[in-house]
C-alpha cells in the first residue's frame, strides 16, 4: 500500500499513461514512430525525482515539469509526449489506477480477516458468554455468535469495496481541457470516431475496458471520491466496533490477550493486563 501511494509509483504511472496514449495515437494513424515509443518504454522507470522537482520550481507546473524530465531521457519522443492531453489526463487517470489497486489490496486483506472471524465463530460456537444491552447484563449468548456479527458487518464492507473496485472506480481516459475532446478532434482532423476509439484504446491498455466516465469536467467526477471515502468510513466503523467490544470484554475479564512470561503490564502496576494488540 505504501508503494502504491508513493510519489515514485504515481510518476511512473504518468509515464505509462503517456506511453499508452502515444501507442493508441500511433495505432490510429498519427505520425508517431515505433522508435519514439520504444525510447519511452525503455526509460519508463528512469525517473529523476530531484530533477523533476527542480523543473517544477522553474516552470511552476508539476505535469510539465515531468514532461520535460521525461523528455531529457527520451529526446526523440519529447515532441509527442502528452500529445493532445491536459494535465488531468495523467493526474486523474493515475489516481484512478492507484485507487483501484488500493481497493484490491483492501479486498484481499479484508477477505482474510473475514475468514479468520469465521474460523473463530465455528471454534467458539458453543462457548457461552453474557449478552448485553445498554452495556447491562441481558441474556446468554455465545462467543461464536459475537464473531458472526463482526464477520457480517465486514462482509457488507467487503461487498461495498468490491462494487467500487469493479464498477464504481471509472477511468477519466482521453478527454482534453475542461473535459472536452476538442484537442483530439484537431489532431484527428475532425474524425470523431477515431477520438472515441482513442479513448477506449487507452482505457483498455490501462485495464479499464468498459469503465470510462461518459462525461467529465477537467477532473473525473468527485462523487467517485465521496463514494470511496464513504466505503472506507463504513469499514472503519465496523473495525472500531470490533475493537471496542473486545476492549470492553477485556475489562470484564471475558476475553484476554495472550500475556507473555516477560511482559510487563504497567510500570507502576505490573499485575495489569492492558489490551495492546
UniProtKB/TrEMBL annotation:
Residue stretches making up the Fumarate lyase N-terminal domain: 79-276
Alphabetical keyword list: Coiled coil, Lyase
Annotated transmembrane regions: none
Keyword Coiled coil set for record: yes
One Pfam assignment: Lyase_1
Domain of life, source organism: Eukaryota
GO molecular function: lyase activity
InterPro entries the record matches: Fumarase/histidase_N, Fumarate_lyase_CS, Fumarate_lyase_fam, Fumarate_lyase_N, L-Aspartase-like
Coiled-coil ranges from the UniProt annotation: 30-57
Protein name, entry field: Fumarate lyase N-terminal domain-containing protein
Organism per entry: Cichlidogyrus casuarinus
